[in-house]
């Protein structure tokens, strides 16, 4: 791995274009963890994420000849992973899941001391979202896609993208509030060495 | 709740983005194994699929041809296995085929085969040749040779090497008891070049023809079909595995 750190991803482009197995493996080793991180956000669990990662890298090695050097190679690979996640979603869902109005909660605006939240906890929250919410929240909030781009990618209207996003946010906020309640209770009740679910519980709440 | 800060949607999204955009997780070893396996499969399947199919077809045809050739003698009931020593004696076929030896009785099998060859090309000569052949088998060998030169004197010198080959591969001495009709039927089957001129328009049809000769089943081991887009395989019959394109 030390050796692989010295070589940049762009240095491996030519070898990958020539389909050299060693270069392909080196590229994979350099980017596997990063791309697995991307896939983990789009998947419901680790197994689905690994499937996405495998499909995505096979595509990368098959389509590397199509890569034009106008952007970074790593950025291009990342986009392939995201597109793979979209394809997997489409395959699984066939169509965007229409969420019942009853499922959507009108969550009051509240503050969450999310700096205290661990990455793992946030990831779990996203993974627990329904596939449609998860996909759109990832694309918009984390990847930075516009609603127009999402609508084109998924074959839906921009309005549908917006409403799905706001519902996804509402669901996440509701989860955070539940967690906050649990941790507050745990903070009052538990004085033992047990791990509190979120560190936010022990941080002071700002008051106006 | 009222005493809490309100979080805008943008800030909410940003908080997730900051935490999760650069998130990394190590996959298991199985993922690379899966990728490498898939890449190998893709490489193998993508490498010259047409050539591989052609090579497999050719190997199948040659193999079947060899197998059928090995079993040819028992199948051809008209053959006379007892005459095989005659073939062995003709170790030097060119000597037998020399024109000056035509009048000699020793070269009789060669001359008779020459006659048959001519007879297949000229239907009128069939009866003559076969009759003279049976006549020759009784006694008058020298006279038959003279008759033969009437029919084949122009071509005999040119065709002799082929005739010699025939005499080596097929036992047809003048003493053969094979019925006339059976022998006349056999000749076109072995005269491949004659039929080839009629049918061969593409490599596929050549293979069809050869397969048709050695494989008498309704579904051949392999069949090609000439279409608008070129020649393609229209049928396979490998015993248990059969494939036939829709007509």
From TrEMBL, chain A:
<dbReference type="Pfam" id="PF04542">
    <property type="entry name" value="Sigma70_r2"/>
</dbReference>
<dbReference type="InterPro" id="IPR013325">
    <property type="entry name" value="RNA_pol_sigma_r2"/>
</dbReference>
<keyword id="KW-0804">Transcription</keyword>
<protein>
    <submittedName>
        <fullName>RNA polymerase sigma factor</fullName>
    </submittedName>
</protein>
<dbReference type="InterPro" id="IPR036388">
    <property type="entry name" value="WH-like_DNA-bd_sf"/>
</dbReference>
<keyword id="KW-0731">Sigma factor</keyword>
<dbReference type="Pfam" id="PF08281">
    <property type="entry name" value="Sigma70_r4_2"/>
</dbReference>
<dbReference type="InterPro" id="IPR013324">
    <property type="entry name" value="RNA_pol_sigma_r3/r4-like"/>
</dbReference>
<keyword id="KW-0805">Transcription regulation</keyword>
<dbReference type="InterPro" id="IPR007627">
    <property type="entry name" value="RNA_pol_sigma70_r2"/>
</dbReference>
<comment type="similarity">
    <text>Belongs to the sigma-70 factor family. ECF subfamily.</text>
</comment>
<dbReference type="InterPro" id="IPR013249">
    <property type="entry name" value="RNA_pol_sigma70_r4_t2"/>
</dbReference>
<dbReference type="InterPro" id="IPR039425">
    <property type="entry name" value="RNA_pol_sigma-70-like"/>
</dbReference>
<feature type="domain" description="RNA polymerase sigma-70 region 2">
    <location>
        <begin position="27"/>
        <end position="94"/>
    </location>
</feature>
<feature type="domain" description="RNA polymerase sigma factor 70 region 4 type 2">
    <location>
        <begin position="121"/>
        <end position="172"/>
    </location>
</feature>
<dbReference type="InterPro" id="IPR014284">
    <property type="entry name" value="RNA_pol_sigma-70_dom"/>
</dbReference>
Automatic annotation (TrEMBL), chain B:
<keyword id="KW-1133">Transmembrane helix</keyword>
<keyword id="KW-0472">Membrane</keyword>
<protein>
    <submittedName>
        <fullName>Uncharacterized protein</fullName>
    </submittedName>
</protein>
<keyword id="KW-0812">Transmembrane</keyword>
<feature type="transmembrane region" description="Helical">
    <location>
        <begin position="50"/>
        <end position="70"/>
    </location>
</feature>
């Amino acid at each position: 791995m030390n050796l692989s750190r010295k070589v940049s991803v762009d240095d491996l482009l030519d070898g990958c274009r020539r389909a050299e197995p060693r270069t392909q493996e080196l590229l994979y080793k350099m980017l596997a963890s990063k791309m697995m991180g991307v896939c983990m956000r789009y998947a419901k669990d680790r197994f689905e994420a690994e499937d996405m990662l495998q499909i995505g890298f096979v595509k990368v090695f098959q389509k590397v000849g199509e890569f034009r050097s106008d952007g970074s190679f790593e950025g291009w690979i990342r986009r392939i992973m995201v597109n793979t996640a979209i394809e997997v979603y489409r395959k699984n869902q066939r169509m965007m899941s229409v969420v019942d109005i009853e499922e959507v909660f009108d969550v009051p605006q509240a503050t969450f001391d999310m700096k205290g939240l661990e990455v793992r906890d946030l990831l779990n929250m996203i993974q627990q979202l329904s596939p449609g919410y998860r996909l759109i929240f990832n694309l918009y909030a984390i990847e930075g896609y516009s609603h127009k781009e999402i609508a084109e990618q998924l074959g839906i209207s921009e309005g549908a993208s917006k409403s799905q996003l706001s519902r996804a946010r509402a669901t996440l906020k509701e989860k955070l509030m539940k967690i906050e309640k649990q941790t507050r209770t745990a903070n009052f009740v538990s004085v033992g060495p047990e791990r509190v679910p979120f560190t936010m519980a022990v941080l002071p709440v700002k008051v106006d | 709740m009222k005493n809490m800060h309100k979080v805008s949607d943008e800030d909410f999204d940003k908080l997730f983005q900051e935490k999760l955009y650069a998130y990394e997780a190590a996959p298991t070893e199985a993922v690379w194994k899966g990728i490498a396996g898939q890449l190998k499969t893709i490489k193998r399947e993508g490498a010259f699929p047409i050539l591989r199919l052609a090579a497999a077809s050719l190997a199948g045809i040659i193999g079947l041809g060899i197998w059928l050739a090995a079993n040819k003698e028992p199948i051809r009931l008209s053959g006379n296995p007892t005459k095989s020593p005659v073939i062995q004696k003709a170790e030097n076929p060119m000597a037998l085929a020399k024109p000056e030896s035509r009048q000699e009785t020793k070269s009789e099998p060669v001359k008779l085969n020459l006659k048959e060859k001519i007879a297949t090309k000229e239907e009128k000569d069939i009866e003559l040749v076969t009759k003279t052949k049976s006549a020759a088998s009784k006694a008058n060998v020298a006279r038959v040779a003279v008759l033969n030169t009437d029919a084949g004197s122009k071509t005999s010198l040119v065709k002799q090497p082929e005739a010699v080959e025939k005499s080596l591969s097929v036992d047809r001495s003048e003493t053969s008891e094979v019925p006339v009709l059976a022998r006349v039927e056999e000749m076109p089957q072995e005269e491949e070049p004659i039929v080839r001129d009629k049918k061969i328009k593409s490599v596929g049809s050549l293979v069809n023809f050869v397969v048709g000769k050695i494989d008498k089943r309704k579904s051949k081991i392999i069949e090609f079909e000439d279409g608008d887009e070129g020649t393609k395989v229209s049928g396979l019959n490998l015993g248990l595995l059969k494939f036939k394109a829709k007509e």
